[in-house]
């Protein structure tokens, strides 16, 4: 359900911008390219399914969703390790932490949240 409500806000924002933008008039959207943090979606498949349901009978109905999932990163305060976080992080945790793969210290996870970018590819 989380993916559906997040995608609903994204689709509503895109449609509002399409309505208000003179540059978009009469041009069909071929692709919606979305960069989103891995900690904001449980499943890319359910996120895609929400998109397909929500765009029916809209200006985005014939578009294809291209999803780029941005992983969270570990920033270890003890050893200085910086790198991608491992699977199994609780996406509901507002301050997610995980074990550093290098030294075992509990390290905070940075990034991996929010919508980083939305790009529309229009027909010529």
UniProtKB/TrEMBL annotation:
Swiss-Prot/TrEMBL keywords: Metal-binding, Nickel, Zinc
Organism ancestry: Bacteria, Pseudomonadati, Thermodesulfobacteriota, Desulfobaccia, Desulfobaccales
This protein's record includes keyword Phosphoprotein: no
GO BP field: protein maturation
UniProt cross-references to InterPro entries, sorted A to Z: HypA/HybF
Function: Involved in the maturation of [NiFe] hydrogenases. Required for nickel insertion into the metal center of the hydrogenase.
Assigned protein family: Belongs to the HypA/HybF family.
Top-rank lineage group of the source organism: Bacteria
Binding residue positions for Ni(2+): 2
Binding, Zn(2+): 76, 79, 100, 103
Pfam families: HypA (PF01155)
GO molecular function, one term: nickel cation binding
Keyword set includes Ribosomal protein: no
Protein name, as recorded: Hydrogenase maturation factor HypA
UniProt organism field: Desulfobacca acetoxidans (strain ATCC 700848 / DSM 11109 / ASRB2)
